[in-house]
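Protein folding task:
====================
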Amino acid sequence: MATIDSPKDRRGYAAHAAWAVIAVVVSLLMIFTINKGHPPLIVFLPLVILVWVVGHLAIWVVAWLVVKGRRLASGTGSEGRSWPVGLRLALIGTGVLTSLGVFQILVTGYLGRLYPYHYANLWALVLVIKLVHAACFVGLLLRQRWSRHVSALLAVGWAMLLASQIAEHLPPRAPSNIAELMIAFGIMVFLFILGLHLVVSREVKSFLKN
């Protein structure tokens, strides 16, 4: 049985503490720059508080999903294993997009207008994409086998989108920055490899619930 001194509990407390520290630092910066900027940053303090509260709720939800996923995986032999690197990367990627989706909704509600895109169709499309990542994020935490395939599709999809962007900026079609193209190419290759790894890796397959 886990105790309050277990490593899992300590990680949870550390996450809450780190999130609280970030909120305090941002709030203090806003307060001490009260007369600077237009509009002054202090007007966004309620938004910081809202994001802070939602962030703590998100930490609790993620912790609950992790525990539930571990229980669902009981009997498969993976409940006590560390997460494979490929799945950790998939978790980070889908988690970041999930956070951005939540932020998009919160800021839109706070401002009373669409954010960060002013066109409803584009705003909705981007939110749907983020919701797909959110569903995959939850599936990964619950160790559902389908989440592996969705993660692979998302990785390959982003790689293909990046490949199209690279093609548009290759000479002589458009001026290009070699350094930026090389970085983009590296990210594209990484995403392709990650997607392939998620599909073929035996370690990833055995870790997720049947």
Q: What stands out?
A: The mean pLDDT is 88. Residues 1-72 form one domain.
